[in-house]
Amino acid sequence: MTMNQLQRELKKKQAFQSSEVEAILNVLRTGDQFQNRLGRLFREYGLTCSQYNVLRILRGEGNPMPSLEIADRMVQVVPAITGLIDRLEKQELVTRERCHKDRRVVYVTLTEKAVRLLKEIEKPGLELHEQLIGHLTRKELKELNRLLTKARAAVRATESDV
Amino acid sequence: MTMNQLQRELKKKQAFQSSEVEAILNVLRTGDQFQNRLGRLFREYGLTCSQYNVLRILRGEGNPMPSLEIADRMVQVVPAITGLIDRLEKQELVTRERCHKDRRVVYVTLTEKAVRLLKEIEKPGLELHEQLIGHLTRKELKELNRLLTKARAAVRATESDV
DNA sequence: TGAATATAGATTACATGTAAACTATATTCA
DNA sequence: TGAATATAGTTTACATGTAATCTATATTCA
Question: What's the pTM?
Answer without folding.
Answer: 0.91
